[in-house]
Design the sequence.
């Protein structure tokens, strides 16, 4: 991305029949960019972390709900959230019966792939009071992440020698930033009403983030399964405070996707198998982040140069003409040149370089071997060149079997394409 907005996703005006509830011209002029980490109702990263890691010593002892002195508290919470930099804050109830049915059906169809922890969590994901006893409402917030100054996303995707990293991951690890902001919001509430039982989560526990955010009126669940807001697109993180507070829930947002199905058409692997239905086993974000072992061979050519995550469904979404660039410096600033690095350069990183350069990044958790696997596949998809073949040759004898296999596949593909 150059210094301006993402041109490709914003070009052209949709017919009103295609996109329901299109914004007026004044609102449109205020918008402008593009992707998020919301996808599997709890996300890819650190699924168990919120249960055992953050907020030690904060617990629920019986079903304690703070019920007094809450007049106007919800409005104050929203105002405090805006002061902290959140794009929006809302209140959701804890009844997710319809969403639970969809989740169980998704599990039954095996669409969670190798994410067995999702099935192990059972109904705790869809029943907040089972995950954290005493929860009476969920305060949910969103935080914009699009790095406006990064190299144009479509330009990078069109350059097979460059590595494409999902734009949510080019800055600092969002878990740290989002969790700290949510904790400050909880502390602000405590300063107003006194101690109250709560737990803070951000993509770190079995939480149906998109469902809760939709119930809180922060947006609607788009056909790509991510949350979309009319005034902010879908390029933001989500986080929650499970609270023992008796607060009335906000009204859910209406669905404004209309007849548009651009996200389905844009998905490189056909992972969005139907509107509002995602098969993680085909999703590039899952394959490059969560999936262990070799990437299925039939899907490898479809990954192109995407080495960590995928933004295509969001780049195609017309609502992201209203997406807001990150105001948070930790997201606005690209680290390690990850918006425009070459595949060969990243493939040359040693394990110690990988750990050092990606310290404080969400990417680091996939480990060096998975990083090399992804890059090897991308190098196999690159235009045949002596540089690509030379880079691959340096890892031909790598001690990890999955890396060796990916390198052998890529070298064979380079040889065939160059013949």
Sequence:
């Amino acid at each position: 991305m150059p210094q301006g907005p993402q041109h490709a996703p914003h070009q052209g005006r949709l017919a009103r029949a295609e996109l329901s509830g299109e914004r007026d011209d004044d609102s449109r002029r205020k918008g402008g960019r593009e992707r998020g980490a919301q996808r599997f109702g709890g996300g890819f990263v650190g699924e168990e972390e919120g249960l055992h890691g953050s907020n030690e010593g904060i617990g629920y002892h019986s079903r304690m709900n703070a019920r007094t002195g809450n007049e106007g508290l919800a409005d104050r919470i929203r105002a405090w959230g805006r002061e902290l930099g959140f794009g929006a804050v809302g209140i959701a109830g804890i009844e997710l019966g319809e969403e639970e049915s969809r989740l169980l059906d998704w599990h039954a169809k095996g669409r969670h792939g190798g994410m067995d922890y999702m099935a192990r969590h059972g109904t705790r994901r869809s029943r907040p009071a089972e995950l954290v006893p005493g929860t009476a409402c969920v305060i949910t917030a969103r935080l914009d992440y699009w790095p406006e100054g990064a190299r144009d996303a479509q330009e990078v995707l069109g350059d097979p020698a460059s590595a494409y990293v999902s734009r949510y991951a080019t800055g600092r690890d969002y878990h740290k930033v989002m969790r700290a902001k949510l904790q400050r919001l909880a502390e602000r509430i405590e300063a107003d009403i006194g101690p109250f039982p709560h737990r803070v989560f951000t993509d770190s526990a079995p939480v149906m983030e998109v469902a809760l955010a939709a119930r809180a009126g922060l947006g609607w669940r788009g056909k790509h399964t991510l949350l979309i807001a009319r005034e902010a697109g879908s390029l933001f993180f989500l986080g929650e405070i499970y609270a023992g507070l008796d607060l009335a829930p906000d009204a859910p947002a209406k669905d404004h996707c209309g007849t548009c199905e651009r996200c389905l058409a844009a998905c490189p692997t056909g992972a969005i198998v139907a509107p509002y239905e995602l098969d993680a086993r085909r999703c590039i974000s899952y394959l490059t982040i969560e999936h262990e072992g070799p990437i299925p061979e039939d899907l490898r050519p479809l990954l192109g140069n995407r080495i960590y995550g995928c933004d295509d469904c969001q780049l195609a979404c017309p609502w992201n003409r209203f997406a807001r660039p990150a105001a948070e410096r930790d997201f606005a600033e690209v680290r390690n040149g990850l918006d425009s690095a070459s595949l060969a350069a990243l493939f040359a990183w040693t394990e110690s370089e990988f750990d050092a350069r990606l310290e404080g990044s969400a990417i680091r958790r996939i480990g060096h071997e998975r990083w090399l696997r992804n890059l090897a596949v991308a190098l196999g998809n690159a235009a045949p060149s002596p540089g690509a073949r030379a880079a691959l040759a340096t890892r031909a004898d790598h001690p990890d079997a999955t890396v060796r296999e990916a390198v052998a596949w890529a070298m064979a593909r380079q040889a065939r394409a160059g013949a």
